[in-house]
Amino acid sequence: MQTDVQKPEKHTWFEDLQGYLFGTSMCAFALVMLRSLGLITGQMAGLAVLISYVTDLPFGWVFFAVNLPFYWFGYKRMGKVFVGKTFVNVALISVLSEWFPSMVSFEGVTPWFGAVMVGFMTGAGLMAIFRHGGSLGGLGILALYLQDATGFKAGYVQLAFDACLFAIAFFVMPLPLVLYSLLGAVVVNLVIAINHRRDRYIAM
Question: What is the torsional sign of CA 60, 61, 67, 72?
Fold first, then answer.
């Protein structure tokens, strides 16, 4: 006997808003801990952190700036709604990551434990953003655009970028901190790989 399957309702604007506030708050909080430990992460956030370490520029401004060139690719591939959501999330991360340090500080956190917790929090934040149709822009957009244009897998583009980023970090950061940073990056990717499954979970 065949039964009718009701199509799930899409998220309302309020549900999207709370998802973005939760996701960006988790990611921003994780970035505050990350920077207090002197660690980095992957993708454009990692690039922005590394630039902020070298130049002493505020992370939030650098993160916002390095994402600007990628919105055109997002518009071409995914449309203005996706780009608008991504812009909002990037702006929230930029603001919150500069605001949160005035309300919290991390002292006596063991680096390996901090790296793992940063990975968990970042993964949870990204999952919330993804589930509500947004992203944190940057390299992910370019990787998907290049995949469509050339057939080169988006995951390989991101992997190559992170490999270059961490290779540079070896020359400007102490080796133990780079290794702890790699641990955190692995945790983030595991959280997303295990939980961001469209064949198991509905993302609206």
Answer: positive
Residue showing tokens 């680096």: 111
Q: Which pTM was predicted?
A: 0.81
- pLDDT tens readout for residues 135-178: 777 777 777 677 767 777 766 777 888 889 999 999 989 999 99
For residue 9, what are its two tokens? 């309702």
For residues 176 and 71, what is the distance between their CA atoms, to the nearest angstrom?
Answer: 35
Say which residue the tokens 């520029």 belong to.
57
CA distance linking residue 97 with residue 120, whole number of Å: 17
pLDDT in tens, 174-199: 999 999 999 998 888 888 777 755 55
Instruction: Note the maximum CA span of the chain.
Output: 66
User: Helices 175-195 and 111-131 sit at what angle, rounded to 10 degrees?
Assistant: 30
Could you identify the residue written with the tokens 């506030």?
Answer: 21
